[in-house]
């Protein structure tokens, strides 16, 4: 003989697995997606141009140094400014050398390193050394242009295309 069993107790109501707070966070995240996409669209030209300038810095660092020269311990400095859609870039780096400033400058003027637009030598080069108060080089040399110096700063100025989309150029 079988004994009757009690009917099973009803199961407690199950939660949907997501709390109200999690749903709110998910909705907020969905609302932020268009703004994040807009930020990526606006910033991508900046990132692309920074990459192009970084490649130019790499080409400068790969170019053979003048005899008796070595890069300073600081990385090259890159700056981008603009006005009305024109983008100007400046790349500045320092060398330690026993050569005169003019000789180092001539070495880089003959280099024809490719700029961010793919043109060869489409930039201006200047070079200088630090001077003390009376106008002599800070390392104590005579400053007649033929003496050696410790530090030479090379300064490249140029313009690159794509100023319409890079927000730094406005």
> Element order, helices and strands?
HEEEHEE
Please give the radius of gyration in angstroms: 31 Å
Mean pLDDT: 84
- The tally of beta strands, per DSSP, is 5
Largest sheet: 5 strands, antiparallel
| Alpha carbon gap, first and last residue | 93 Å
Helix content: 25-40%
> What is the count of structural domains?
1
What structural class do the secondary elements suggest?
alpha+beta
Report the portion of residues in β strands: 15-25%
Overall form = elongated
Please report the number of helical segments: 2
Low-confidence stretches: none
Description:
- This protein is an alpha+beta fold.
- It has one domain (32-169).
- The protein contains two helices and five strands.
- A hairpin with a 2-residue loop joins strand 2 and strand 3 (86-97).
- The mean pLDDT is 84.
Could you provide a short overview of the structure?
Keywords: Membrane, Transmembrane, Transmembrane helix. The chain is built from two helices and five strands; from the N terminus they run H-E-E-E-H-E-E.
Key traits:
single chain, 170 residues, alpha+beta, five-stranded antiparallel sheet, 2 helices, 5 strands, 22% strand, transmembrane helix, Secreted protein, transmembrane, membrane
Topology:
Blueprint: H1 20-62, E1 69-71, E2 77-83, E3 86-97, H2 101-109, E4 123-128, E5 151-160
Antiparallel strand pairs: 1-3, 2-3, 3-5, 4-5
Protein name: Secreted protein
Transmembrane segments: 25-48
Keywords: Membrane, Transmembrane, Transmembrane helix
